[in-house]
Design goal:
1 helix; about 25% strand; alpha+beta; 3 strands
């Protein structure tokens, strides 16, 4: 499978930074914008790995 380009939105909510990828409806959070970005990248990678295994996505 080639590269996939997804959007990530990060916003602050009550002292916590929330990150969300609207295309695949995956979300995460962190104590800083950088933490939220790193955490959403990990969550997206886990989602994509799991989606490939049962054949939800083409390789």
């Amino acid at each position: 499978m080639g590269k996939v380009q997804l959007n990530v939105i990060i916003w602050e909510d009550e002292g916590l930074y929330v990150s969300k990828c609207p295309q695949i409806e995956v979300a995460s959070c962190g104590e800083s914008p950088q933490d939220a970005l790193e955490n959403i990248h990990e969550a997206i990678n886990l989602y994509l790995d799991n989606a490939r295994s049962p054949g939800m996505m083409d390789e």
